[in-house]
From TrEMBL, chain A:
GO terms for molecular function: calcium ion binding; iron ion binding; manganese ion binding; protein serine/threonine phosphatase activity. InterPro entries: Calcineurin-like_PHP, EF-hand-dom_pair, EF_Hand_1_Ca_BS, EF_hand_dom, Metallo-depent_PP-like, PPP_dom, PPP_phosphatase, Ser/Thr-Pase_EF-hand_contain. It holds the Pfam family EF-hand_7. It comes from Cebus imitator (Panamanian white-faced capuchin). This is Serine/threonine-protein phosphatase with EF-hands 1.
Automatic annotation (TrEMBL), chain B:
This is EF-hand domain-containing protein. InterPro entries: EF-hand-dom_pair, EF_hand_dom. GO terms for cellular component: sperm principal piece. It comes from Cebus imitator (Panamanian white-faced capuchin). Keywords: Repeat.
Length: 628, 162
């Protein structure tokens, strides 16, 4: 290393001063980078924990659909919206039920689609217009029709005049999609694209992204593929069917395998080519046993989820509608696995599904099927892409600023046989990206801590119970290690609790945590004062699940459900999730929600009322503690 | 005596957990190794402020016989525990930092010009890289006067850290 003065006559005092400043700055900068990394770790572990929560929701959905038959007196019952019925209905009949009023200002699509329609849609979305539900359904129907004709793996051949562009997760980030099309051109016969899954969810413009991709696909056969995580509500059923028909993967030039997650040591491409992919009803449900009473008390599925419904699901007669277990596992591995440096194949404990696969597994599988490379997505990478396993595995991620402003770049890769892959990076920028580092880190950190604190408040009762259990002397304080232990076991998040403690809780001079201080400046705003806190927390924790379920029940989209429906649904919900909530409490809530005493509940109003109040928008920072 | 020993053992156990947490956050492969280029960040995030020279020596101690570009946790833990127990590489107190700036401000104006700061930081001591220089300037510089009011700068950084 260099250590120089600018001349022999230089006073050592100024050299010492320079060294002091440099030393301090490097320390400060390193702590900023560490804080940035902590924030990213928080975002990522909550993301993966949420994915596991979705598993529970999907299980509940199925359970509900099967058990909830006789409540609604309307014609179209939820349980009857099965695939067979929709198939029997002519698309025209179904879509014709929907009228587009003259007052509609948005884009009007003509079928069969033309290039003009893609441009129309792009311009409309740029102008923040909304696409009418009728066109949405038409696009989805047409897309599904076309997808049904495609094999499990799409085969693409490149040539010098026809490179293929592979994009990774978009997560509903429309701006990133616009940026990609701007840099790389619109999809066309000579400019084909592969979109490697996770196009929607989380981002604000999921439907727009989906529409653009479907329309591009219909016009140009952009090879849109695999794994769709959906949060759309009203068109849920149609989307569910569509995504079961999405191909599992793509093979480019017979040597590059493009799948969403990765592989496992047992991955069998021949089997994957053959299986009936549409029978994968949901990635997130384990296949049912055939002709058995499915006792679901505390049963752990492969994905480590406890299904604790107090009921029995009769699964007879459903065997033909689902994939056999070994095929289902093959698809799970393809969609959920992550590459790692360690050799071998291990269960993917972070995700609860798929595995971690090492470089030896990659070599083995590539050799077995005479392939040269795997391109996959599924993980956010700071540079938008990452190469590992000696160049044999490429991760490509196309949603820039995924967690927060400035968290990462996005990228896409262009492929042509005989040449090396070319990577292109980008970042949807904002004025904030020119802020100094400490402000950007601060923003990201505040956002991560806020999310974490909201997590904490949703488990407040359980946390307090755990803290008090450890606090024998009822002092209101715990050593950091015990506090950290409680946090990790209740929240189920593997985070650096000691390093984060100063952001979450007050610590006294002896290094002990005042565990109640986390809850001081934050509370859940209750819609009804009388509701007790445990119930409020529960409703808050499950609010997005409840919203989805309510919307599914509300088939006439009136925003209202009847008291009877609410009670029935709540009963199912709480038994499935094993919640111990007093029925009288629920009755009280239900009655109070029926504000005008007409027997119906405006649930959107009810759910909107649950928001977390942060007393101060900026973090309340406790006294700084000295490390070591 | 037994009490003291107990306390030291608890302190060591706590250090171990703290070090493990800081290490794991940078262990992207989940295989108990980190890229050697992140070691400086990890050590500094634990509150220590080694100079670049001292860091260089530490890395040499932590690397394998045949350097792999990765540092293993098994090697890092004892070395880092020792550093924390001995309270080595203590951070610079705020007043010492302020006096350092004042020393460089020979004309006692209360500020340094952008050019002066760049010259000092990139040509003397353990020179900054371009990236480090840009980052310091982006936060420190007052765009109108093109100078650094170091007292304000220090206050701002101290607030941000606390």
């Amino acid at each position: 290393h260099k250590c120089s003065g600018s001349g022999t006559g230089k006073a050592p005092l100024s050299l010492r001063a320079v060294l002091i400043i440099q030393n301090w700055f490097r320390g400060y900068r390193a702590r900023l980078k560490a804080r940035q990394q902590y924030a990213l770790t928080i975002f990522q572990s909550i993301e993966y924990a949420d994915e596991q929560d979705q598993i529970q929701l999907c299980n509940f959905f199925t359970f509900m659909l099967e058990n909830y038959k006789h409540i609604r007196k309307e014609e179209i019952e939820l349980s009857q919206l099965t695939e067979s019925k929709l198939d029997m209905m002519d698309k025209q009949d179904y879509v014709d039920l929907i009228d587009v009023p003259d007052s509609y200002q948005g884009p009007r699509l003509q079928f069969p689609l033309t290039c003009a329609d893609i441009d129309l849609l792009l311009e409309a979305f740029k102008g923040k217009q909304i696409l009418h539900a009728r066109y949405v359904l038409e696009v989805l129907f047409e897309t599904k029709k076309l997808l049904k004709q495609m094999p499990n793996f799409t085969q693409i051949q490149t040539s010098p005049s026809k490179e293929v562009t592979v994009c990774g997760d978009l997560h509903g980030k429309l701006d990133d999609l616009f940026l990609i099309f701007y840099k790389n051109g619109l999809p066309s016969g000579s400019n084909p694209y592969v979109f490697n899954g996770d196009f929607v969810d989380r981002g604000r413009n999921s439907m727009e992204v989906l529409m653009i991709l479907c329309v591009s696909f219909l016009k140009n056969k952009t090879y849109s593929i695999s794994y769709l995580q959906i949060h759309g509500k009203k068109i849920l059923q149609t989307l569910e069917e569509l995504y079961t028909w999405l191909p599992i993967g793509t093979i480019i030039d017979n040597e590059i395998l493009v799948v969403h997650g990765g592989i496992s040591e047992t991955t069998d491409l021949n089997l994957l080519h053959r299986l009936e992919r549409n029978k994968m009803k949901s990635v997130l449900m384990p296949p049912k046993e055939i002709n058995k009473d499915y006792n679901t008390d505390s049963k752990h599925s492969k994905l480590g989820v406890t299904i604790s419904a107090h009921g029995r699901i009769k699964a007879s007669g459903l065997s033909s509608e689902h994939l056999p277990k070994h095929e289902w596992e093959q698809v799970i591995d393809i969609l959920w696995s992550d590459p790692r440096g360690k050799k071998g194949c291990f269960p993917n404990t972070g995700r609860g599904g798929g595995c971690y696969f090492g470089p030896d597994i990659t070599s083995k599988i590539l050799n077995k099927f005479q392939l040269k490379m795997i391109i996959r997505s599924h993980e956010c990478k700071p540079e938008g892409y990452e190469i590992c396993h000696g160049g044999k595995v490429v991760t490509i991620f196309s949603a820039s600023n995924y967690y927060e402003e400035d968290s990462n770049r996005g990228a896409y890769v262009k492929l042509c046989s005989g040449t090396n892959p070319r990577f292109f990076q980008y970042q949807v920028t904002d004025a904030t990206c020119f802020q100094p580092l400490h402000q950007r880190v601060s923003t990201m950190e505040n956002s991560a801590i806020k999310i974490l604190r909201e997590r904490m408040i949703s488990r407040k009762s359980d946390l307090i119970h755990a803290f008090q259990h450890q606090d024998r002397r009822k002092s209101g304080k715990l050593p950091v290690s015990q506090w950290a232990f409680c946090m990790e076991s209740i929240l189920g998040l593997n985070l650096p609790w000691r390093s984060l403690s100063s952001n979450l809780v007050i610590i006294d001079q002896n290094g002990n945590v005042e565990y109640m201080s986390s809850f001081r400046n934050i509370h859940i705003e209750k819609p009804i004062k009388e509701a007790n806190s445990a119930l409020v927390e529960t409703l808050y924790r499950y609010r997005s699940d409840l919203e989805i379920i309510f919307n599914a029940i509300d088939t006439d989209h009136s925003g209202l459900i009847s008291m009877e429906e609410f009670h029935a649904m709540w009963k199912l919900f709480s038994s499935h999730y094993n919640l111990h909530i007093d029925n009288s409490q629920v009755n009280k809530i239900a009655n109070m929600m029926d504000l005008n005493r007409d027997g119906s509940i405006d649930f959107t109003e009810f759910l909107k009322a649950f928001y977390v109040v942060h007393k101060y928008e900026t973090m309340v920072k406790p006294e700084a503690t000295n490390l070591a | 005596m037994a009490d003291e020993k107990d306390r030291e053992e608890t302190a060591v156990a706590e250090f171990h957990k703290k070090i493990k947490e800081a290490f794991e956050v940078f262990d992207h492969e989940s295989n108990n190794t980190v890229d050697v280029r992140e070691i400086g960040t990890i050590i500094r995030s634990l509150g220590c402020c080694p100079s670049e020279g001292e860091l260089h020596d530490l890395i040499a101690e932590l690397e394998e016989e045949e350097p792999t570009g990765y540092i293993r946790f098994e090697k890092f833990l004892p070395v880092m525990t020792e550093i924390l127990l001995e309270r080595r590489y203590r951070p610079i107190p705020e007043d010492v930092l302020l006096r350092a700036f004042e020393v460089l401000d020979t004309a006692k104006r209360g500020f340094l010009t952008k050019d002066e700061l760049i010259k000092y930081m990139t040509e003397e001591g353990e020179p900054f890289s371009q990236e480090e220089m840009e980052e310091m300037l982006s936060a420190a510089i007052d765009p109108e006067s093109n100078s650094i009011n170091y007292k304000d700068y220090i206050s701002m950084m101290v607030i941000d850290e606390n």
